[in-house]
Write a structure and sequence with these properties.
The complex is a heterodimer. By secondary structure, chain A is of the alpha/beta class. Chain A contains 18 helices and 9 strands. Chain A is 43% helix and 13% strand. Chain B is globular and about 35 Å long. Classes of the chains: A alpha/beta, B alpha+beta.
Amino acid sequence: MTELALVTRRSPDLRLPRLLAGISYYSVADLRDHERQYGPLPLWGTAGRRRSGRLIDIVDAAGLTGRGGAGFPTGRKMRSVASGPGSAVVVANGAEGEPASCKDRLLLTRMPHLVLDGITLAAHAVGAREAYLCVHGQETGLLDALDDAVAQRRAAGLDPAPIRVTGIPGRYVASEQSSIVQYLNGGPAKPTFSPPRPHQRGVHGRPTLVNNVETLAHLALIARFGDRWFRGIGLPSAPGSTLVTVSGAVARPGVYEIEMGTPAGQVVMLAGGPAERPAALLVGGYFGAWLRAETAWPVPMCHAALKAAGGAMGAGMVIVLPVSSCGLAETARVLRYLADENAGQCGPCMFGLPALADAMAELAYHGGRRRALKRVASLAGLVAGRGACRHPDGAVQLARSALRAFEADAVWHDHRGPCPGVARAPLLPVPGDADWDWA
Amino acid sequence: MNYELRVNPIACDAHGLCAELLPEIIELDPWGYPILLSASVPQSLVDHAKRAAAACPTLALLVGKAQ
């Protein structure tokens, strides 16, 4: 048994699953389960082939990109933090703000040590003496479980830089990286005006590496198995695997681990296939974009291909909208939520997003007066690019993609009034919406 | 030397003085917040831009040398 585990560790399977290889339906992977699955935390020293800078080289060579939404090259980010003055700080972002995503939650609840390994390796690579793991503060059960996991590792002497598990407010914009940094510095959990960016001056004024928890989990595997193993699957331009959350009208909604570049349609089939005839896919979450089902089906799930198709990868959400639903009504509900979630800091976002949400709601639920469509388009142009963070830009991208993907629908609504689809029960999850069935 | 304009949207409180002092580059949106028609400032307007930045009650308008 032990021998078998050892062999698996030395030549790990190139294929899937990787991050989810150690997952159990019944229990949380404790430190022993974790080490049995992946082997011990590899030691990286300060000199020779295993010096800290070499780990960054390997992450670069692996081509790992951020899995939190922006898709920035992780190695480059680590290098800029490592080259900053003095000791650095590492922040693991596990405060999943997207209502339709639950991959980070899955990692943190089922295999916390993979993420914690990643934090310790990142801290070592960039020369950090402290690290934070941030999750939503209202999830007290998760906070307690993570505290236990950290204590277990402290007893084993695994983390030279202490990891502090920190609860942050559960608002949508609170998980933006400058929000987290400001909150850890004692301020409100709201985005700040940049520069300086966190990698220049972040927590306690130090160069700060903010990474999504899934990115760090990949780092934990790359440090063990190397860059060539990581590149063994996925696309040359977007290597490795990634977690996606598939929901909406599919037979088996849930979190799946896919190769980067898997076509969106194949991801839907992985989740049991469409439960009804699909009209469109919302790819990338609420900062992503609607794509018509036939357009989206063959598009590879990676940042470049989705962007070229007019979409976005975001944090890897795929939501299937059936033909019987109204995409404009769904978009109006999400825009209302995003407008309510604005931080109340920047005027264009504070006033522009509610106006945009109103206009989309008029188009979806009233319409027929040939003015709402024009108003949505002009407000979108007015708000884009004018906030301190990308919150208004994300909302605008969603609104514009709805007008493109549901173009014929939008004209129908604008000329004649709502379509029969608006009467259907809401599909997209919006926190605080009484109409949505959370069961 | 090329100069650039930026607005700090968090600091901006829609006083609107910038649009009065630099109408060539700054317009106001329906809620009174500035829209920059171009980020770069032509040489002939640099002094006006600096004056507008200095007049902003919340110091939200920033004039800096282009990178």
